[in-house]
Amino acid sequence: xxxxxxxxAQLNMTVxxxxxxxxxxxxxxxxxxxxxxxxxxxxELSVTGYPPEDLxxxxxxxxxxxxxxxxVVRRTRSCTAIIGFAEKGLYNSACIARDGKRxxxxxxxxxxxxxxxxxxxxxxxxxxxxxxxxIAGLQCGVSVCEDAWFPEDGPIARQGALGAELILNIxxxxxxxxxWREREAVVxxxxxxxxxxxxxxxxxxxxxxxxxxxGSMVMSATGELLARLPQFTEELVFVDLDVAGSVTPPxxxxxxxxxxxxxxxxxxxxxxxxxxxxxxxxxxxxSGGIDSSIVACIAVDALGPEHVHGISMPSRYSxxxxxxxxxxxxxxxxxxxxxxxIEPAHxxxxxxxxxxxxxxxxxxxxxxxQSRIRGMVNMAFTNExxxxxxxxxNKSEMAVGYFTLYGDSAGAYGVIKDVFKxxxxxxxRYVNARAGREIIPEDVITKPPSAELRPDQxxxxxxxxxxxxxxxxxxxxxxDQTRDEVVAAGHxxxxxxxxxxxxxxxxxxxxxxxxxxxxxxKAFGKDRRMPITNGYRV
Amino acid sequence: xxxxxxxxAQLNMTVxxxxxxxxxxxxxxxxxxxxxxxxxxxxELSVTGYPPEDLxxxxxxxxxxxxxxxxVVRRTRSCTAIIGFAEKGLYNSACIARDGKRxxxxxxxxxxxxxxxxxxxxxxxxxxxxxxxxIAGLQCGVSVCEDAWFPEDGPIARQGALGAELILNIxxxxxxxxxWREREAVVxxxxxxxxxxxxxxxxxxxxxxxxxxxGSMVMSATGELLARLPQFTEELVFVDLDVAGSVTPPxxxxxxxxxxxxxxxxxxxxxxxxxxxxxxxxxxxxSGGIDSSIVACIAVDALGPEHVHGISMPSRYSxxxxxxxxxxxxxxxxxxxxxxxIEPAHxxxxxxxxxxxxxxxxxxxxxxxQSRIRGMVNMAFTNExxxxxxxxxNKSEMAVGYFTLYGDSAGAYGVIKDVFKxxxxxxxRYVNARAGREIIPEDVITKPPSAELRPDQxxxxxxxxxxxxxxxxxxxxxxDQTRDEVVAAGHxxxxxxxxxxxxxxxxxxxxxxxxxxxxxxKAFGKDRRMPITNGYRV
Lengths: 538, 538
Known about the structure:
2 copies of one chain form a homodimer. The first copy, chain A, is of the alpha/beta class. Chain A contains 18 helices and 21 strands.
């Protein structure tokens, strides 16, 4: 049976950095030639990075991307390259190039326009009949990402009906937890429909709120997974694919583990946001709580301990335990650590506002003052030292608005904004288990959560326990269930009513929060475009 | 010739407030019956308000909107009602109802998915042949908004070809300056193509960053404008339309004036954002500069002077002139006014940060501290009193990042964020001219702009003069011109390079800024979806 040497270029592109992306592709082309590869697949829109968003509306950007594509095309030799680019018109296309020439262009047919995607904002859909390309004697069908998600009469099945012997599918398909299973099932279904093996190449890396996990694969015509690349690492792998159903050398990354893939996604999100934006260091306010603890761990794994700076900012209400926990964590992580008590600024604001607010006991205004003073200190370090501020709010808090706008939400990147509190606990145990020692102090994991903005404050004074809250939020936010459906699932109606109202009322706060890594099927961000002004009461 | 009595319901709906919207429609139906109207047109998606955004992804919301539609349908009597609703499936539809029953549904065919629009995210396009409905003996074609923007073989021309004697087009078409001319030209073209008069009804009011100006109209079959409703006011008008080309009684609002329509749009944006979100009062930091001055004027016109609160927050660098100008403006507007010196907090932060930052002259960190202290004071009033903070940054500043994140950009609504500085000057003169007296002190209009965050600071120390800056921004931001195109138009290459770079680098700051009224064809907001992480260098 025919054997083809295939290069899977699971690369980390940068949106807009056309020159950098092209340089990376030219290197890979050289390696492909040296390896004697027959074909190499780059990710979807590899020239521009994905998603380029409104850069595509700049005619100059599209022209530059075409020039860059032509440069890559001219450098091809005997190895056929499948290159993602924005074709004038505008199409999301794959260029098939060999011997310095374009030998064809495939235009993406199915343009996702839901969830985080806006492709119909930019692109027209490819139409008309399908065709195949001869690569190393095999009749090959080419398609782009979403095209693989349409069954039966979709592009891949049609290419199969034309007699395709091999299916090449290039992707920029974002991560969420457990998504790899669905991805693998879809590729398997397409291979079976087409009656041909499928080579699936996905990009890797972070882009604003999205991360891409790679997880490129080869599936046999009979639906057997022949190769799987690792998640979250750049890979340039060459394999010999026997279309009868084998891959040499063996290339099978382990099955992803849930905690591991989520944690690594978060690390990737921070690393690429910081580095691709030209920064090296970050600052994290360490409260001694679990959220800031896990954020510090993620930052250290992303950037190295020498690039992470912790600040403890105790107020008149902070417990000694919290200060000790913050310091202990910093020591275990080996990061820069300092303490800046916020009392001088706190006292100054109270004094400045007293003539307007009069005599009254401390209230939510005062709580917000403390949080905002901390946000200001973080941002002063951003201004003075160029350390990006990482925010520490989790998805449960983002959902119900349990954070201070311009306070703890002030910063460049919301590391765990798509991670529910109950998942934060789980990831904390994962961090300690993986290290084989206590990185996050056990006390931090087990003590009752508190914002410590007033004496003896506990999260549970304001919110139901997170074990009750998180499933309600998951149903209402991620699955768009109605209030009645959530109640029917067994939740206390009074709690559901209160939570639903809190979620709806916090939209204006979320809108001004920083981006953060999406790890769920529906994150706060491009995924969920709710009006702020909203009279709907469920 | 046949005469039909037409009701134009140019109403101000609230997104999501299905009950409120329906109540308003039921009232209008009663008025229509009392007036003996044959047909009444409500705006596009009048049941849900426009744009409902991701509320449409909630199955419960769509079900509630259908129930509400049925309530309106059941209340119809002899007057035919054209009602915008979200049809299950999902379609952006117009229901044609009479005598308590649906007599038809028209599904919008052209779904805008560019600029601020995401309709392909939610809706499928209507397809198939067209039909007409008999209303008061006239064969009528019905269409929705964007359908009217497709010439020649578009929906309205096809309805004309079927013999339509009257075209009914319902809209939720957002404002930008001068848009009314284009709107009128489009309706004229459709009337001529169809050979039938067109009744065009548009909604009015503000929804987050969008405002809708109304400006509903009747166009004759020969392209003569027969009726024009005013901008920015709710109207329920009944006219007798003789399809031969006349409207009785005369209903011709004046041609919009540019400054007047922009100013009124800004007033509408603030008023509806504040009120539809359940608030009554606002607070504005009055620096004595022109931006905060015009924002205060707009707020007073939107909400009344008793609902506007000015705070002067002098620092060690504030001039006496600025404090006097702030006070003078507040007195002329008759608003609450107080002074809170920020020195105590400023000194406290400097002291808290000194151990980390060491001895050095004041720098941009200190400038941002001052701006953020002011933002914190505003927000303390929001927390304590429920006064929404209005921000005062203009489009020139938003574009180049000449503002402090969490400082002067902290607040609920960015009143003039889509107004270039040169337009702010023009609007200030308009305010004084309209009042027939000096509301904004002449000195405020003529003095050189300054942030007053360091001694003798002037905007022109950091930026080119606004007369040079604004045209560059208009070309680069609103028209997506390349750097080379902007230079070719006659601008200094060095200045263009610097400005383009500043615009690109400020994306992360804009992303966390509050929404504000769109008055241009491309505002910062849903209109311009740029990646933050962006390696593109033009």
